[in-house]
Fold this sequence. Notes:
Strand 8 (258-262), helix 10 and strand 9 (285-288) form a beta-alpha-beta unit. It is built from 16 helices and 13 strands. The strands form three sheets. It has a seven-stranded mixed beta sheet, with helices on both faces. Strands 1-2-3-13 form a four-stranded mixed beta sheet. A two-stranded antiparallel sheet has the order 11-12. It has helices at 12-24, 79-89, 100-112, 125-140, 166-170, 181-184, 195-198, 209-218, 244-255, 275-278, 305-308, 327-341, 345-366, 395-399, 403-414, 436-455; strands at residues 46-50, 53-56, 61-64, 118-122, 144-148, 201-204, 223-228, 258-262, 285-288, 299-303, 372-376, 379-383, 418-419. The protein is α/β, with parallel strands linked by helices. The longest helix is centred in the C-terminal third of the chain and has 22 residues, at 345-366. It has two domains: 12-64 and 345-455, Aspartate Aminotransferase, domain 1; 79-341, Type I PLP-dependent aspartate aminotransferase-like (Major domain) (Aspartate Aminotransferase, domain 2, 3-Layer(aba) Sandwich), CATH 3.40.640. The chain binds 4'-deoxy-4'-aminopyridoxal-5'-phosphate.
Amino acid sequence: MARKTAPAPTYTHSETLFQRAKDLMPGGVSSPVRAFKAVGGTPIFVKDAEGAILTDVDGNKYIDYVASYGPIIAGHANERVVAALSKAIGRGTSYGAPTEAEIQLASMITGALPSVEMVRFVNSGTEATMSAIRLARAATGRDLIVKCIGGYHGHADQLLAEAGSGVLTLAEPGKSKKKKLAEAESKPSTPGVPPSTVANTLLMHFNDLDGAKAVFDAHPGKIAAIIIEPIAGNMGVVAPKAGYLAGLRELCTASGALLILDEVMTGFRVAWGGAQRLYDVQADITCLGKVIGGGLPVGAYAGPKRLMEMIAPIGPVYQAGTLSGNPLAMAAGISTLEILQEPGAYETLEQRSAQLAEGLMEAAKDAGVPIALNRVGAMMTVFFVPTEGATVTNYAQATACDTEKYKTFFHALLSRGVYLPPSQFEAFFPGLAHTEELIDQTIEAAEEAFEAVGKS
Ligand code: PMP
């Protein structure tokens, strides 16, 4: 942790494991961004984690803002979550039969989200979004979907068109970042996706309502749904402009399309319920994941009965899963939501996140490094903008940021015991275990890290 004067850490064991891992798994990892490709160096291999602190296999300790890319909001190995899991594990790990725990988690979700009456649990965010799209297409009898350039909704083929997150992180600098809408349409983000698979995927820019209208005007009566992260989180964090989500809602309603809010990242993180509660916008279908699984593999798609009852077995839209509604995952999700339901939980998240954001802004200013700090509740990004005072409100501005500076910042903090996401385009996730002291330590380390950026 924030080891201002301590000797430089060593990563010998991580390096050895990384060499072995690279021989056995592509890039040595189970998900691309973990390989540190965008920032260079060796990924730290984690030995264990508790609260906000990660310990790597070399014994180095870090204040963790990756939080498993969002699920860990109550802290690692939170004692209540561990107790719930310990209790559940002794009763068997999977049955392929319904359990009361599913009812409990589903009722917490329906209670929190006014747009939701029914929930179908799946195992990941990817499954949630791809199933939501199937449902939207079935419900509307239309094929076209619209997503944002730089928006990420998991790795289903049809959604890998101009995707954010790891796809953006691994993009060659300057390539594919400044595309105009027309050129960008329907191009797969990865080999292995036939152009025909994304031919039904239309693109728009986040925070550009006129652009969305133009897409609808060009395809009257043909669009099944917009799928959107209500707060963009996979090009770095970008909040929706006032009226943007309401405008999309109107557009969908007027044209008989559905609005799918992908709240895999934002759900129960930015507010009880998620971004739709924060911005008072009604989704037709909501996708959830991350926090509702408390660190276990869970996703869900959810909506009103009239839509959800189209899903098998009561309706014709097929979707299934051997491990869906898994009892361990339900137990972790329920206990995490119980923690968040306690009075003051979101206030604490807000306070700690604001403390961090303010400290980072001041530290950057003192070091003369221009940044834009985008934050909604407990998700935020430090963007290394080209000039003082520049803002990041869209994809073009996000991708114009200096990824080399981010790299310097990332490593300066890693060596000082602060673990940030290894990409300019992933969010920082403070949680309930980040105490004021830990945030102060983070800010102290960041003062030096911004100085290093200033000198680079
Ligand atoms: N949607 C959003 C908004 C996400 O941020 C992510 C993952 N970061 C996904 C979907 C995909 O979720 P998963 O990685 O669990 O498949």
